[in-house]
Specification:
By secondary structure, the protein is of the alpha/beta class. Helices cover 30% and strands 24% of the residues. The structure holds pyridoxal-5'-phosphate.
């Protein structure tokens, strides 16, 4: 396999791994493991790289951070301070956004299978709802008529790193199909909704530009129909998220200058051709902003050799990072103090969960590892902590943010006491 040079915020200091300027072994010693370490600097760089690439081509741009990737409050505040908007898929995420200072006007709710009390909450807090079904729209309008409505369209083209993460196309539950879209806007217009958006989100972990091109074409052709047939002018056109990051050394990187130049040029030319006015161009990256800004540190408890396999048994399992078990995802793993050692062995890296599927990496070439070694699992910032659980009654990990070269604890490690939260023992 091609050895990729470590790139920022990772560094090799004489064979020892540093992250955003700090020794990961020191961090593991100070805060214990499992530990998510997040680089504030990297999040800001990711945001600005993307924002600058788009804004240089189209002025009216809004980047909505899809916060299900990582809802740490400090992460939310950092992105807010950069000027990000917020994409929320649940009322809980709306709550987290409001709690970290996002104003309601800057939050877009894109839920699916939404309850009436959730719609009521969204109306009461003044959040723009991106509707996912005619039923949701009808139920929303019964509660109250909001000033703005957006409709999530299924452009019938999807993509993603795993079939679970393809969120458009023929088999998906998400969005409205073209003929339903017209009906939804007709309903909203009749109810005297005043402002409109249109939206798609085709999938997650996409490294190619082509699916976006096809989907943008379809979305804008639908926007044209809505505009032509109903006289609706869109305040915003939202292309969704899904921008992938390379996890594996042979993954191609999504080239941001190419992506933005192709997608934004197409957007601009279609908006002009279809006389769609001057809508905001919105995108909703989650993974792209936070993924490579975090590593998960874990300690080796046991190295176990059986007649068939060699296992490195660590203190993080799919309770801490579920992506490998859930999607078969690949995460690069580095041994913190052995960057210069040759990879001589093939291991399975497994966790403490009592399930055979508790695997973080399979058949992975690593240097000889011993008990007490610290491993760094890379690209852990997106769908890492946010998908973690207390399964097997294991308290969740701590999170540390590196801010201006110093570590700051931004989430305490859970304790046994946290396992009791909200349980009540039935009285005899
Ligand atoms: C999950 C999600 C995103 C972000 O997906 P990423 O792959 O993390 O960029 C954006 N929009 C919606 C509606 C989503 O559900």
């Amino acid at each position: 396999m091609v050895k990729r040079k470590l790139c920022e915020p990772l560094e090799d200091h004489k064979g020892n791994l540093y992250f955003d300027g700090l020794s990961v072994e020191d961090l593991a010693k100070k805060y214990d493991t499992p530990l998510y370490v997040i680089s504030e600097k990297r999040i800001r760089e990711n945001y600005n790289r993307l924002y600058n690439a788009i804004v240089s081509k189209y002025k009216d741009v809004r980047i909505y951070y899809a916060c299900k990737a990582n809802t740490n409050l400090t992460v939310l505040k950092i992105l807010k301070s950069e000027g990000a908007y917020l994409d929320a898929v649940s009322t809980g995420e709306v709550f987290m956004g409001l709690n970290s200072g996002f104003s309601p006007e800057n939050i877009l709710f894109t839920g699916t299978s939404v309850r009436n009390d959730e719609l009521k909450f969204l109306i009461d807090t003044g959040i723009t709802v991106n509707i996912d079904s005619q039923s949701e729209l009808d139920r929303l309008l019964k509660i109250s008529v909001p000033p703005t409505i957006s409709v999530r369209v299924n452009p019938e083209i999807g993509a993603g790193h795993h079939e679970h993460c393809v969120t458009a196309g023929l088999q998906t539950k998400f969005g409205l199909w073209e003929n339903e879209v017209l009906k939804a806007y007709t309903t909203a217009k009749k109810a005297r909704v005043e402002r409109f958006g249109i939206h798609m989100h085709i999938g997650s972990g996409i490294l190619e530009i082509e699916p976006y091109i096809q989907a943008v074409e379809k979305l804008l052709s639908i926007a044209k129909r809505v505009h032509d047939e109903l006289g609706i002018v869109f305040d915003f056109i939202d292309l969704g998220g899904g921008l992938g990051v390379p996890y594996q050394s042979n993954d191609t990187e999504l080239n941001i200058p190419d992506f933005t130049s192709q997608v934004v040029s197409l957007f601009k030319s279609k908006v002009k051709e279809y006389h769609l006015g001057k809508p905001f161009l919105c995108i909703e990256p989650g993974r792209y902003l936070v993924c490579d800004a975090s590593v998960l540190l874990t300690t080796v408890n046991t190295v176990k050799v059986t007649p068939y396999r060699k296992f490195i048994c660590v203190d993080s399992g799919f309770n801490t990072l579920i992506r490998p078990a859930m999607y078969g995802s690949y995460h690069e793993i580095l041994v913190a103090n052995k960057l210069s050692r040759k990879k001589t062995e093939t291991f399975d890296v497994v966790g403490p969960i009592c399930e055979t599927g508790d695997v973080l990496a399979k058949n992975r070439e690593l240097p000889l590892v011993v008990e007490g070694d610290v491993l760094a699992i890379l690209n852990a910032g997106a769908y890492g902590f946010s998908m973690s659980s207390q399964y097997n009654s294991r308290p969740r990990a701590a999170e540390v943010m590196i801010r201006q070269g110093k570590p700051v604890l931004v989430r305490e490690r859970e304790q046994f006491q946290d396992l009791l939260t909200s349980q009540r023992v039935a009285q005899q």
